[in-house]
């Protein structure tokens, strides 16, 4: 090769290197420090590492590179800001939410229903859909789903006891998975998947696929999202076969509903939004709770929503429609202040899910009613999302909590005593009793602190935003990530952070908790929409299980392994427990 060619190659390399340096000066030019990074790659090799889960790398950034306040990262050239300061998070997730309404879109191939799921929607589309879906999770709806949850929990207990009679230990992760799937399918869609009746439950098998990301899938996914046009041109497929399976199930169920079988459940809410938003149809209101203010059987879905939102004070001056929109949104933010007029159990519901007492400015997130019409595809998308989003998260939470309670028999016995006390008071496991069970709530909160299924979350900046108290300005498109796992394990907020100490979450100790350091469901108007549902079903399952059996660690499975799954936190090798039935003599 001639000298000219070498010079040309050297010139191209230097220009590329200078370009990379320029792109990677995004954070330093704004006064934000960054962990060491590689030219061109930035931090992507760390974020997508095969040898280390993402939350472990984030924890390193949090502790070593300023992430506990904020630290700049690059996914190739794309800037991502990690924010670990609870006060700043409060601003981003709640106070200045209107600058961070969106999450980064994670696209799948063109035409995929994943692109239409709530989790992926942005701006007005998200607001409208969230407003439609939220009424599924009001306290009234939870109360009406309670008997179904109890039925599924009974099935879980008898199945687990039967297994325990024939095996030295039972993998409770698998059984909680069956329970979570049966509960969601039954409560939201009236589908009976009978997971306890088959050796390999079909629904759980497909839902598992959704979460078993191989490294190749993550690479394909990342590249596709960085270069969607190329991804589509190359016809890269990201959707897992599970999406097709669940779509078919939902489509069949919708066909049955169209033929007249209505239940007033989640699916009907979506179908009503498709049918005619001003005159929604509820032909069978059996699942809708009876309320004092309910007048006629044929009341509209919107009226039903209003009667459900008993935890929110009604603003006399708003019109019915406005009130519905506001209440719909208020009820799903865990930041609503306690109100004098709320009933005991509703207040407990709020306390269960929040230690924060400041207001989200819901008026800043208006809902446009005229657009509340869903396409059939969107309905299928939200239904599939419901099935998969609530499955692994809830099953893992239950598996982790059962492991921790087996490891700490004193807490297990204390919890059992609390449940017996509730039965003594209410005659049975009731909605109200469960809502008032403080130690049960504390055990779940502490489990979610130690093992949050989602270890980090994101928001995308939608309007130019100066981070309060700094000179740093974020621009539309910048991504903010918050390290849930690190906040939950930070010894500054949680003394002896690795210890299972449920008492931290008892009402008398809640003043010691720093706001925004325990956020397993996220926070603010875009928090987890299924939080109440997940907590209620987890509480019912734990209560029923501990009442019927003692759980112990198996001697060969005393350690919990996590970290194989690179994105979500779950027990890698199940949770194998020895289950000993409690006879009726020892029961009372
Ligand atoms: C223990 C169980 C669960 C945990 C720990 C959990 C956690 C989370 C977290 C951390 C987020 C993101 C919040 C944020 O960005 O601030 C989220 C969002 C979401 N979750 Fe859950 N979740 C659970 C159960 C459920 C259930 C049962 C459902 C459905 C019934 C569900 C449906 C969703 C949906 C649809 C979103 C997206 C909300 C939106 O973008 O508006 N989750 N969840």
Automatic annotation (TrEMBL):
Keywords: Endoplasmic reticulum, Heme, Iron, Membrane, Metal-binding, Microsome, Monooxygenase, Oxidoreductase. Its main location: endoplasmic reticulum. It is a peripheral membrane protein. Pfam families: p450. Heme binds at residue 528. InterPro entries: Cyt_P450, Cyt_P450_CS, Cyt_P450_E_grp-I, Cyt_P450_sf, Insect_CytP450_Detox. GO terms for cellular component: endoplasmic reticulum membrane. GO terms for molecular function: heme binding; iron ion binding; monooxygenase activity; oxidoreductase activity, acting on paired donors, with incorporation or reduction of molecular oxygen. Coiled coil: none annotated. Its cofactor is heme. It is found in: Endoplasmic reticulum membrane; Microsome membrane. Belongs to the cytochrome P450 family. This is Cytochrome P450.
């Amino acid at each position: 090769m001639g000298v000219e060619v070498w010079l040309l190659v050297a010139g191209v390399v230097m220009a590329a290197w200078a370009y990379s340096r320029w792109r990677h000066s995004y954070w330093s030019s704004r006064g934000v420090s960054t962990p060491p990074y590689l030219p061109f790659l930035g931090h992507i090799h760390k974020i997508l590492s095969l040898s280390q889960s993402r939350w472990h790398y984030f924890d390193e950034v949090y502790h070593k590179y300023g992430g506990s306040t904020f630290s700049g990262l690059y996914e190739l050239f794309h800037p991502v800001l990690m924010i670990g300061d609870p006060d700043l998070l409060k601003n981003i997730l709640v106070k200045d939410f209107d600058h961070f309404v969106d999450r980064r879109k994670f696209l799948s191939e063109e035409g995929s229903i994943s692109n239409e799921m709530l989790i992926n929607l942005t701006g007005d589309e998200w607001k409208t859909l969230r407003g439609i879906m939220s009424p599924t999770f009001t306290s009234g709806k939870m109360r009406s789903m309670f008997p179904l949850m109890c039925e599924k929990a009974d099935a879980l207990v008898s199945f687990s006891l039967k297994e325990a009679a024939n095996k030295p230990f039972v993998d409770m992760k698998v059984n909680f998975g069956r329970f979570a799937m049966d509960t969601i399918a039954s409560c939201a869609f009236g589908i009976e998947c009978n997971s306890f009746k088959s050796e390999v439950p079909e629904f759980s098998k497909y839902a598992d696929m959704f979460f078993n990301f191989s490294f190749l899938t993550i690479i394909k996914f990342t590249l596709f999202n960085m270069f969607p046009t190329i991804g589509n041109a190359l016809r890269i497929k990201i959707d897992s076969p599970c999406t097709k399976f669940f779509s078919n199930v939902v489509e069949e169920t919708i066909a049955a509903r169209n033929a007249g079988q209505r239940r007033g459940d989640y699916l009907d809410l979506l179908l009503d939004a498709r049918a005619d938003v001003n005159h929604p149809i509820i032909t069978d209101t059996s699942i809708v709770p009876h309320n004092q203010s309910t007048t006629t059987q044929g009341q509209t879905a919107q009226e039903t929503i209003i009667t459900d939102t008993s935890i929110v004070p009604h603003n006399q001056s708003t019109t019915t429609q406005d009130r519905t929109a506001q209440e719909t949104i208020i009820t799903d933010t865990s930041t609503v202040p306690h109100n004098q007029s709320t009933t005991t159990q509703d207040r407990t519901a709020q306390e269960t899910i929040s230690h924060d007492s400041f207001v989200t400015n819901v008026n800043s997130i208006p809902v446009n009613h005229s657009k509340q019409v869903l396409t059939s595809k969107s309905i299928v998308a939200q239904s599939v999302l419901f099935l998969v989003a609530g499955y692994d998260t809830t099953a893992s939470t239950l598996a982790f909590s059962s492991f921790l309670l087996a490891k700490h028999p004193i807490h297990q016995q204390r919890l059992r005593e609390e449940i017996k006390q509730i039965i003594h008071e209410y005659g049975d496991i009731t909605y109200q009793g469960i809502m008032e069970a403080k130690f049960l709530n504390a055990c779940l909160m502490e489990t979610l602190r130690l093992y949050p299924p989602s270890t980090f979350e994101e928001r995308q900046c939608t309007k130019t935003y100066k981070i309060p108290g700094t000179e740093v300005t974020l621009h539309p498109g910048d991504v903010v990530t918050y390290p849930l796992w690190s906040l939950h394990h930070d010894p500054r907020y949680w003394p002896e952070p690795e210890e299972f100490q449920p008492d931290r979450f008892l009402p008398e100790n809640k003043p010691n908790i720093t706001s925004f350091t325990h956020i397993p469901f996220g926070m603010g108007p875009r928090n987890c929409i299924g939080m109440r549902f997940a907590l209620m079903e987890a509480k019912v399952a734990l209560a029923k299980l501990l009442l019927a059996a003692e759980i112990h660690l198996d001697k060969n499975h005393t350690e919990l392994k996590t970290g194989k799954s690179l994105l979500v936190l779950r027990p890698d090798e199940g949770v194998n427990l020895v289950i000993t039935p409690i006879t009726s003599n020892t029961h009372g």
